[in-house]
């Protein structure tokens, strides 16, 4: 997969705006509040786009629907708004195709719901760049991955602060592409999608620590802070603290103690024994009990 840093711009790698393909922006209605209103505001009413949930069983929650926007060029106002406001929040990503917008829309609608390897239905967060990176791995064969009319993906990665370019394998083995409708995930795809959930939780935890625990982490760059928090979360899970709210409270506790690993704590065994002791109640109860033991002079109230 080709990658290049955001600081070099969208066309900072080998990729340039195409003359023989259409460029679409798939943007997330969950991460962008009041998305339809904002799309029309950005485009000043001159919008060529489809709401993916329209005409589907999920039409009733259309406010949360992804939108596929046909871009008119590198200076399209919707694209400029996305590049200015949406990269860090991973609002969406670019799709390149020679197909008409309607064909791309129909293909994406077939992927809203897929099948778990065990056969159960699953909804995909189609507009999440991390999800698409996990499903449409670079160089994967259309015989196994439902690329359909999608010829290239341009995916922002807010952890690495890079653009990632993903394309399907060119040479097929038997020429028959897998259907998108009722697509069944493989076990490796499911595992990568589950890793996306953990990645999302750690990104939310980073937002919390940046706001409430400023200066606590020793790492300074975003990729390094994410890696450091991933290690802290792994330690927390080892203590039986497995929920994101528990991780936030655990970070608050560690900040007040001036540590980023329980190995650094004075009397670390006593702290970890307290946090592991299910007789002390739920994970939140154990954390609150531990916070109550921190000297008052070390405390800073935060909201979890």
Our count of domains comes out at 2
Strand order of the largest sheet: 1-9-8-5-2-4-3
Query: What's the helix-strand series?
Result: EEHEEHEHEEHEEHHHHH
Distance N to C terminus: 37 Å
- Which blocks of ≥5 consecutive residues have pLDDT under 50? 299-304
Which percent band covers the strand fraction? 5-15%
Describe this structure in words.
The chain is an alpha+beta fold. It has 2 domains: 2-185, no CATH class; 196-298. Helices cover 37% and strands 13% of the residues. The protein has 9 helices and 9 strands. The strands form 2 sheets. The protein has a 7-stranded antiparallel β-sheet with strand order 1-9-8-5-2-4-3, sandwiched between helices.
List the SSEs and their pairings.
Layout lengths: L1 E4 L16 E6 L7 H9 L5 E3 L15 E4 L6 H10 L5 E6 L3 H10 L2 E3 L5 E3 L5 H7 L16 E6 L4 E5 L20 H26 L9 H17 L5 H14 L10 H9 L6 H10 L12
Antiparallel strand pairs: 1-9, 2-4, 2-5, 3-4, 5-8, 6-7, 8-9
Helix pairs in contact: 4-5, 5-6, 5-7, 7-9, 8-9
């Amino acid at each position: 997969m080709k990658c290049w840093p955001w600081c070099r711009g969208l066309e900072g790698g080998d990729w340039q705006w195409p003359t023989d393909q259409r460029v679409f922006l798939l943007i997330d209605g969950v991460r962008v509040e009041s998305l339809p209103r904002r799309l029309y505001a950005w485009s000043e009413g001159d919008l060529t786009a489809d709401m993916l949930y329209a005409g589907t069983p999920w039409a009733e929650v259309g406010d949360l629907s992804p939108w596929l926007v046909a871009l008119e060029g590198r200076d399209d106002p919707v694209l400029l708004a996305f590049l200015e406001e949406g990269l860090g929040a991973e609002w969406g990503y670019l799709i390149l195709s020679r197909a008409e917008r309607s064909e791309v829309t129909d293909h994406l609608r077939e992927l809203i719901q897929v099948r778990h390897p065990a056969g159960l239905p699953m909804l995909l967060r189609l507009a999440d760049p991390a999800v698409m990176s996990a499903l449409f791995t670079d160089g994967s064969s259309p015989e196994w991955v439902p690329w359909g009319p999608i010829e290239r993906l341009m995916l922002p990665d807010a952890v690495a602060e890079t653009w990632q370019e993903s394309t399907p394998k060119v040479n097929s083995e038997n020429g028959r592409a897998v259907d998108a409708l009722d697509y069944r995930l493989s076990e490796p795809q499911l595992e990568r999608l589950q890793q996306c959930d953990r990645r999302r939780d750690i990104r939310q935890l980073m937002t919390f620590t940046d706001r409430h625990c400023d200066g606590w982490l020793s790492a300074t760059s975003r990729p390094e802070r994410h890696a450091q928090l991933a290690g802290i979360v792994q330690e927390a899970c080892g203590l039986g603290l497995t929920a994101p709210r528990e991780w936030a409270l655990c970070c608050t506790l560690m900040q007040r103690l001036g540590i980023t690993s329980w190995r650094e704590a004075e009397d670390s065994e006593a702290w970890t024994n307290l946090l592991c002791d299910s007789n002390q109640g739920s994970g939140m109860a154990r954390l609150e009990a531990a916070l109550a033991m921190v000297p008052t002079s070390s405390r800073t109230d935060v909201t979890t």
